[in-house]
Amino acid sequence: MKRLRPLLFLAAVPLLATAQVNIKFEEYTLPNGLHVILHEDHSSPIVSQVVAYHVGSKNERPDRTGFAHFFEHLMFEGSPNIPRGEFQKIVQNAGGNLNAGTSFDNTVYFISLPSNQLELAMWLESERMLQLKIDSVGVETQRGVVKEERKQRLENQPYGSFLEQMMSHAFKVHPYRWTPIGSAQYIDRASLDEFLQFYKSFYVPNNACLAIAGDINVGKTKELVQKYYGGIPRGVGEIYRPTEVEPPQTVEVRDSVPDNIQLPAVIMAYHMPAQGTKDYYALSMLTTLLSEGESSRLTKRLVDKDKLAVQVQSIPLPLENPSLFIALAIAGFGKTPAEVEKAIQEEIGRVQTDLITDTEFTKIRNQRETGFIEKNSTVQGKAMQLADYHLFFGDANLINTEIAKFTEVTREDLRRVARQYLKNENRTVLYYVPKIENQ
Amino acid sequence: MKRTLMVLVGCALLLAQYAGAQLDRSKMPPPGPPPSVSFPDYDLVTTPNGMRVIVVRNTELPTVAIRLLIDRKPIFEGEVAGVVEVMGEVMKCGTAGRSKDQIDEQIDQIGGSLGVGGTGLFASGLSRHTEKLLELLADITLHPTFPQSELERVVMQTQSGLKARKSEPDAIVDVVRRKALYGDAHPYGEIQTEETVSKITREKCIALYKAYFKPNRAILAVVGDVEKGAVVRLVRKYFGEWKKGTLPVTTYPEVRPLPSLQVALVDRPGSVQSVVRVAQGVRLPRTSPDVMPVTVMNRILGGGSARLFMNLREKHSYTYGAYSVMGPDELIGAFTASTSVRNSVTDSALNEIFSEIRRIRDEDVDAAELVRAKNALSGAFVASLEAANTVASYAIDVERFGLPRDYYKTYLKRVAAVTAQDVQRVARQYLDPDHMLVAVVGAAKDVRGKVGKFGAVTLYDEDGRKVVERPTGSVKMTPDEIFAKFVNRVGGKEAYTAIRDKTLELSGKIQGMEMKVKTVQKAPDKLYEEMNMMGMVQRAGFDGKSGWTGTPQGIKDLTPEQTEAKKPDAVMDIYSMYKSLGFTVEVTGVKEIKGREAYEVTFTRASGPTMRHYFDAKDFLKLREVTVSTTPRGPVEQSTDLLDYKPFGGVQMPTKMEQSVMGQVITFTLDKCEVNAGVDDALFAKPAK
Questions:
Q1: Contact at CB, B31 and A378, closer than 8 angstroms
Q2: DSSP collapsed to 3 states, chain A
Q3: Which chain A positions have a beta carbon within 8 Å of B305's beta carbon?
Q4: A248 Cα to chain B: minimum distance (Å)
Q5: What's the whole-model pTM score?
Q6: Which residues of chain A are under the pLDDT cut of 50?
Q7: Which of A13-17, B184-188, B278-282, B575-579 has the lowest mean pLDDT?
Q8: CB-closest option in B35, B128, B511 to A45
Q9: A-B contacts at Cβ under 8 angstroms
C-alpha cells in the first residue's frame, strides 16, 4: 500500500521529466571590477576564454553609429607587445581559433586554444584590454575593411538590410533605431581622439566579464587571472548607458523596400518587453509554437500546405531594453506579399482566440528543453553563455535555471501575450519587393 | 623556527606572485606541457542483415545524434541530374504508416530533429527518446512512399534554388570548374539544372531508392548518452526486416589531366569582382601515405593566414581572402585555390597565385613555417574531437574507405612526422601548374583579355554549357545586310515601312504581381508609355525632341542625358535611323541562343546605351535585344527574348517577350496590337498636370 501512493501522486500531475542541467562554476570579482567565471570541463584538452564588454550599438551617439562594431575590428590591431597583423596568426599558429561579435548591447571576444596554451590566451586578451594600439594606420586599414564588410553582408546580400530597415522603422527615440554595422559616413568622420575616448570609457575591466571554460585547474587559473588581469586599472568616470524610453507605438507603420531579390518577403515586427521579463519568456514560447520545426503553425500552414512561402521564421529579439517580436516570410514563386501577410495574420488570430492543445503544449516545452541542453555542447558555448548571463542578469547560474522560466509559461500566458502584443497598432510591416530597372 | 621560516618564505613567494612581479608583458608566454589526447573509442557491431552499427558513448549531455549513411560510390545521374537530392528530400515526406504531417508532428513532439542530406539521413534529440528516433528513422528508411504531390513540391523548390543560383557567382564558378575539369560523362562533372530536375519522376525516385538502399551497405552511427547493447537491440528490432541486396556497379571514365593550362570564363556583365578558382584533379586515394604530407603542404600554401592570404591580401590588397583546399578522393581528388578580386587585378592576382604554387614546388619550406602549419593542424584536430559527432564521422570514414582502425589515433603522430622534404616532394608530384584550370566568373568585357594571357579561353554559361563562338571574321555579312534580311523575313520592306503607328497592350507578371503596359509609337520617333502595376499608373512620353515622365510628385521633364538615351527606344525603326542617332554598328560574333546560332550586331555610341541585337543565323528572325545602360550603381544589362511571332498589318511581331534584368525575369504577353490606327501628336506632348 505504501508503494502505491507515489505512483498515484505522479499520475495526478502532468509529467514533465526535465533533464537537469548542472554546470558547476566558480565566480568572483577582482578589485578592478572585472567579473571572473571559471568552469572546469576535462572532456577535451581545450580551453575557451571569453571576454564580454558591456558596450554595444545602443551606447553610441546618433552621429557616431557603427563605433562599437568598428572597435571590434580595432581590437585586433595589436599592442606595444603584439605587432600589427600578428594577433590572429598567433592564435591560429598555436592551433586555436578566435572571433568576435558586436550586438546592440554588448561586444564579445573569444579565443579557443589547446589547454596548455591558456596563458597565451590570457596574455593576448589582457594586452588588448590594457593597452590596445590605436593609431591612424590601424584606423585607416580597418575603415576600408569595415566598409567592405558592410557591402558584402548588407548591400550585396538579398534581404541583407532587413534588420536595419525594421529597426529604423519601428524605433523613433531609442538607440535601437540603428544597428551595430552603423553608417559608413560616421566612421569616416570620427577622429583618433574619439576612438581613444571610446576605449577609455568602455573597454575597462569594471565594464567586462571574463569567462573561461575547459580543461583548466581552477586554482591555477585564478593565479593566472590575477597575473594578467589583476594589474589592469579600473576605468574612471561614468559609463554611458542610454536612458531613452521608446514611447508606445499607437499606429501601424507600413512600408515597401525595393531590393535585388527574386522573391518578395514580408517582415512584421511588434514591440515587446526586454529579455528576462515574464512576458519575454511567454513570447519566446510563442515563437516555438509558431515556427520551430516542420509541424509548427506558420511552417505547416505557409510552407507545407498553402505553399505561400519558401521560408518562414519568428524571432523574439532578446535585448536589454524593450525590443521587437519579428515574424518574417519569403514568398514562394508567384505569391504576393499580401497573401502571405494574410495567412500569418490568420495564424496569429488563431493563437489569440483559442488556447493551444495539451499535446501542442507538451511539444513546445520538449522542443525548448532540447534546445536548452544542446546549447551546452561546447566549452565555447558554455563560456559565452556564462558571460552573457552575468553581464545582463547578474546571475551566471541561469545557465542551469533559465529553462524553468520557459517551462513556467502557461497556455493562458501564451494566449494573453498574443492578444496583448500582437496587435496591428503595435506593429511595423515591411514588404521587400524586387527592384525594377528601366521600367 | 624552521617551520616559521618556511611559512614566511612561502608567503613571500605567494605575495610576489600576487603582485604580478613576475609578469613581463613583452614576452609571449610559452605553452605548457602538451596535454594528453585520448581518442574516444567506439564499438562496431554488424547485424545479421549486414548493417554496420557504430556506437560512441558520450555522457556529457543527455543527448543522442544518429546518422545513417549508405556506403556507395558516386552515382551518375545523367539526364535527371539532381535526382539523388530530390529523392532524399521526398523520402521523409511520407511512409506506409505515416503521412508527412504525422512525421513532422512526431519529431517535434519529442523536441527532436530529423533531416536528409547527401548520402544519408540524420536525427537527433534527447537521449531518452533514442528508441522513438530510431523507430522514425527506420520507418522512413524502410517504408518511404514518395507521394506525388510532395515530389512536385520538392522539384519546384529545387528549381527556385537553381534560378537563384544564376545570380550567385560562387555557385556559378563551382559549376564551371566541375564541368571543365571532369567533363559531362563523370559524376563530378554533372550539373543540376532546372531542365534536368524537371525530368525527375516518382518512378525514377523509387528505382533509385530500390537500387541503393540496402542494409548491407548501410552504416548507422549512434553518438551520445547511449549504451551499445541497448542500441544494437533497438537497431535489430526496427531495421531487422530490411533485406540484403547488391548495389549496381558503376564504371567511371578516367579523368585525364588537361592537355595544357586552360581558362574557363563565365561572363557576368556588370560584375565588379572576378571570382577566381585555380584547380586541378589529384590522384590521391585516402589510403595513400601522401595524404598527410599533402595536407601539411596545402596548409602552408593556402590555409588560414598562409602564403596565398599573406600575398594576395596583406601584401597586395587584391582581396578580402585567398586560400586553397586539397583533399583525397577514391575517384579523383582535387586542388582548388580560391579568391575574389577586383576586375583590374584579375591577371595580377592569377600571377601571384601561380607564383606561390611554383614557389612551394621549387623552394624548401622554412623550418618555422613548417612547425606553425603542423601546430595549426594538430590544434584543429584536437579541437574537432570535442564534438562527439566528429568521432562518429571519423569512425564512418575508417569503415567506408578501409583505413586502418587506428587511423585517427595516430593522426597527431603522422602530422609530426612530415618533413620539409616531404612537403616539397608532394608539391612537385601533385601540383602541376602548367596543366591547371583557371575558372573565372566576371565581366568578360573587362577581364577576358586579362585571363586570356594564361591560356585558351572557353566561354561557358551559368549552367556550365559551352557558349558557341565563331571568330567574327567568318561572318561575311554587314550589319545593313543582316537588317535587310530581317525586314524581309518579317514581311518585306513595303509592309514594314507602311507601318506609321503601332499601339501595343501587354500584360506581364513579375513575381506574381500583375503589370499592364501600353505603348504607342508614331513614326519616326514618338513614343508614349503607360504602365499600370497594382493599381498604380505611371505615364511617360517622348515627342522626338523632348520627353516627360509622370511621378507621384508630378510631371518631370527628361534631362538631356535621359533624352539622348530615350531616342533609340522611341524610334519606330532603329535599323534605318541608327546613323542619324550617332550609333556605329558592327557584327560582333555568332552566339548560341536557346540552341540556335544567331548573329550578334552591336550598336555603340559615346553617350550610350550599348545595344546588341541577335538575329537567327538561318532565317534572320530577331531573337533577342540587349541594352546595357550606365546607372549610378554601374552598368545594368537588360535582355529581352522575343518569341511567338504573329502577323499584324502584314508584319510579324513577337507576341511574347521575356525580359530579364539583374537575374529577374518578367514575361510579357501581347494582348492587343493595332497598327495604323491614326494617333494624335497631342498624346506625346507633356500634359498640363
A1: no
A2: CCCHHHHHHHHHCCCCCCCCCCCCCEEEECCCCCEEEEEECCCCCEEEEEEEECCCHHHCCHHHCCHHHHHHHHCCCCECCECCCHHHHHHHHCCCEEEEEECCCCEEEEEEEEHHHHHHHHHHHHHHHHHCCCCHHHHHHHHHHHHHHHHHHHHCCCCCCHHHHHHHHHCCCCHHHCCCCCCHHHHHHCCHHHHHHHHHHHCCHHHEEEEEEECCCHHHHHHHHHHHHCCCCCCCCCCCCCCCCCCCCCCCEEEEEEECCCCCEEEEEEEECCCCCHHHHHHHHHHHHHHCCCCCHHHHHHHHHCCCEEEEEEEECCCCCCEEEEEEEEECCCCCHHHHHHHHHHHHHHHHHCCCCHHHHHHHHHHHHHHHHHCCCCHHHHHHHHHHHHHHHCCCCHHHHHHHHHHCCCHHHHHHHHHHHCCHHHEEEEEEEECCCCC
A3: 88-89, 92-93
A4: 32
A5: 0.77
A6: 1-16, 437-439
A7: A13-17
A8: B35
A9: 197
